[in-house]
What we know:
The protein is elongated, with a radius of gyration of 28 Å. With 425 residues, it is an alpha+beta fold. Helix 1 (17-33) packs antiparallel against helix 6 and helix 6 (139-156) runs parallel beside helix 10. It is 38% helix and 21% strand. Helix 13 links the parallel strand 12 (329-334) and strand 13 (356-359). It is built from 16 helices and 16 strands. The mean pLDDT is 93. Adenosine-5'-triphosphate is lined by residues 83, 114, 116, 121-123, 126, 128, 280, 282-285, 307, 309, 311-312.
Amino acid sequence: MKLTRIKGFSDVPPGEIELWQRIEQRAVQVFAAYNFKEIRVPILEKSELFSRSLGESTDVIEKEMYTFADRDAKATLLSLRPEGTAGVVRAYVEGKLHQVEPVRKLYYLGPMFRRERPQKGRLRQFHQIGAEVFGRTDPFVDAELLLMLRDLWEELGVSGTVLEVNSIGCVECRPGYRAALVAFLEGRRGELCADCDRRLETNPLRVLDCKRESCAGIVAAAPSILSHLCAECRQHFDSVLELLKDMRPEPVVNHRLVRGLDYYCRTTFEWKAGTGLGSQNTVAAGGRYDGLVQSLGGPPVAGVGFALGVERLALLLSEGGASEPAAALLYLAWMGEEAQRWTFALAQRLRRRGVRVDLDGETRSLKSQMRRADKLGARAVLIVGPDEMTKGRAVLRHMATREQIEVDFANVDDSLAEPFGPASA
Length: 425
Ligand code: ATP
Ligand code: MG
């Protein structure tokens, strides 16, 4: 039997991983500038955590989670995490992080699992980089998160994304909107898809982001949440927009951008790619969830955050032609046992100075070592045979120019570490 990957699960081989590494490194850098700290939480959690935080009547809970019974006596239900926020909130509550420091800025990165239909930009194991801020209700922090993402796009050279923002009000003003929306949708009931017909009972706000064209057409005429916001929510939203007014392109207000769960409130946003991702064009999404920490057993602490999809970001960057300059490789070609021992030791010394070095372990002709160096993309080859050992001088050949120079053994380490060290990449 041939062993193959599970459908919707991907490998990221060398050649592709470099872009991922760059995305992760830049995210870590940019997030650090905003004083975020990393948190790592388990990939496996009790299923209950997700049903309580995401809500029973969401697609993720109803049909997308990988859930199984553990081998304990109670056959506890466990799930592979479908998203990152729930685990981070659980860790925050369980670790009593609010007692240590009232305001917490945390980020995470890693794999998430949802049993969706695999397609371009949609996998069953995918990766997110996310950030959460606990303990702040002010609009400045909502804006800060969005500006942080803008900085990351800039660092990475992502262009053509558009930020869509909305406010979905709070427990005070949303019920009034929900009633108005339900009244409107009741009137068009016969035209809604089967899912939305059900959502109308369980989670009417979800109808607003149904991906079906027929539903989108109906929803276009639906009442807007923005005309139902209470004074505080209106002010909060206006402040967020004001703080983002210098962003280019300007953020677009989309009153249909909603979250269906009660603990979500006020700011919601999605960062969409202009072209290149087809219909899976949301690169990052997030919003405010002031009631979540409390609903998972913690203190009444506000929260706001986002998650970005690494696969989609990588697709966007690779389709934009972003390629990584390979770090310089120095290849050591040797002939004879004495030269082998000498180059083996030299390789260790150079590697400790950050130079990327490789060499053969078996006796091969110089020609075949040169061919191998070429295949590996070496920038230069240091050639050492019995003659060089006697003279105390090696030959350094630059692959691109074919230029050869002699390097004295006496200062061989320095003369190679400088041009080929980490700074040269
Ligand atoms: P979508 O609109 O694609 O269904 P979503 O609303 O389910 O996204 P979130 O749960 O908000 O997505 O996750 C945030 C981000 O994670 C998305 O914007 C996307 O970039 C990425 N993402 C979500 N699901 C997948 C998936 N199955 N495969 C790859 N990336 C995904
Ligand atoms: Mg989805």
